[in-house]
């Protein structure tokens, strides 16, 4: 194992968990077995890929440019090119001034995009089976490494439900149906409105059209663990106002979106959604989010000849390692971490 001095503490900390290289391999193997194609997208782009101010801007031979906040725009363009299902493992850049235990300015992104046949739950089903495969493979292949990490940073194994009848769907008014997952170890899935009710019943007041903050996420994680015995669950149908411009609104209520987040140990680890594949709606959404449409014109134009309904998700490798091993700081999972204060070595 490799250790380096941590500028944020007086003792040596684990800088590279020994099984970090295994994660991209398991990720690739699973997706290739599901008919996905690996792609590589540019990290120098003309405009923001996510919107907002958390973007590194630079001069590109006299033209304004950005470091890609995700491969979002280009993996969607691959779907428009009839790839059907694609994935990428590559660097992601976020210029956030986030001095937290779980944010980095550069990290390794694991990204997926796929055609949707009927419903965005198809994307959540891929997340379900992918992460069960990741958890199972890490526990099987990396027992010695996990034991070594546990000696330095003791942690409890991740708790994941193994029964079949786990999927609970909620309307804004409350639970309306329960169904069975096609996989024997599926995470809980419920709408954000359903979990908002859950938090309110516990005496926690939150904005029903806002996003969950870190404190609310952690409290929700405790409540889910106490009630259902799992630390791995999915929230979907977020308010549209808190999601990126390319997220598809719900057909029954455009206040909400066909989006989801995945949580491990009470912290968000994946963000995903069905995407807008209609160019006029995409333009309207981009303008509403303050994005200069001229900077993403080639992206919008790629949908003008027709595009299938599609969706996907992205996850940071370092955050998976941090939460799987219940580490208290994401910097312990990166060999050369990049945060708002660290640009060397």
UniProtKB/TrEMBL annotation:
Source organism superkingdom: Eukaryota
Alphabetized Pfam families for the sequence: tRNA-synt_2
GO terms, biological process: aspartyl-tRNA aminoacylation
Reactions the enzyme catalyzes: tRNA(Asp) + L-aspartate + ATP = L-aspartyl-tRNA(Asp) + AMP + diphosphate
Subcellular location: Cytoplasm
InterPro entries referenced in this protein's UniProt entry, alphabetically: Aa-tRNA-synt_II (IPR004364), aa-tRNA-synth_II (IPR006195), aa-tRNA-synth_II/BPL/LPL (IPR045864), Asp-tRNA_synthase_2 (IPR004523), Asp/Asn-tRNA-synth_IIb (IPR002312)
Molecular functions per Gene Ontology: aspartate-tRNA ligase activity; ATP binding; RNA binding
Keywords assigned by UniProt, alphabetized: Aminoacyl-tRNA synthetase, ATP-binding, Cytoplasm, Ligase, Nucleotide-binding, Protein biosynthesis
Single GO cellular component term: aminoacyl-tRNA synthetase multienzyme complex
Aminoacyl-transfer RNA synthetases class-II family profile domain mapped to chain residues: 27-337
Enzyme class, UniProt record, top EC level: ligase
Record-listed E.C. numbers: 6.1.1.12
Family as reported in the entry's similarity comment: Belongs to the class-II aminoacyl-tRNA synthetase family. Type 2 subfamily.
Protein name: aspartate--tRNA ligase
């Amino acid at each position: 194992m490799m250790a380096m001095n941590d500028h944020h503490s007086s003792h040596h900390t684990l800088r590279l968990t020994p099984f970090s290289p295994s994660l991209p391999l398991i990720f690739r193997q699973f997706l290739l077995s599901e008919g996905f194609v690996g792609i590589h997208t540019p990290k120098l782009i003309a405009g923001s890929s996510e919107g907002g101010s958390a973007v590194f801007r630079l001069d590109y031979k006299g033209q304004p440019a950005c470091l890609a906040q995700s491969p979002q725009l280009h993996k969607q363009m691959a779907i428009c090119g009839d790839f059907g299902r694609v994935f990428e493992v590559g660097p992601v850049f976020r210029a956030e001034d986030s001095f937290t235990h779980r944010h980095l300015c550069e990290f390794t992104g694991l990204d997926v995009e796929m055609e949707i046949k009927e419903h965005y739950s198809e994307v959540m089903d891929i997340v379900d089976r992918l992460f069960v495969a990741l958890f199972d493979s890490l526990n099987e292949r990396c027992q010695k490494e996990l034991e070594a990490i546990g000696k330095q940073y003791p942690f409890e194994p991740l708790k994941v439900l193994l029964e079949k009848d786990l999927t609970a769907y909620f309307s804004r008014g409350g639970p309306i149906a329960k169904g069975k997952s096609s996989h024997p170890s599926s995470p809980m899935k419920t709408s954000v409105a359903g979990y908002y009710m859950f938090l309110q019943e516990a005496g926690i007041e939150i904005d029903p059209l806002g996003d969950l903050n870190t404190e609310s996420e952690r409290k929700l994680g405790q409540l889910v663990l106490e009630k259902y015995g799992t630390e791995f669950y999915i929230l979907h149908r977020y308010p549209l106002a808190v999601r990126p411009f390319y997220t598809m609104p719900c057909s029954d209520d455009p206040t909400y979106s066909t989006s989801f987040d995945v949580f491990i140990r009470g912290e968000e680890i994946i963000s995903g959604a069905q995407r807008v594949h209609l160019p006029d709606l995409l333009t309207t959404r981009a303008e509403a989010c303050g994005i200069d449409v001229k900077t993403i014109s080639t992206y919008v134009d790629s949908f003008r000849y027709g595009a299938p309904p599609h969706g996907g998700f992205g996850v940071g490798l370092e955050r998976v390692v941090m939460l799987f091993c219940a580490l208290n700081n994401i910097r312990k999972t990166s060999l050369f971490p990049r945060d708002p204060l660290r640009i060397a070595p």
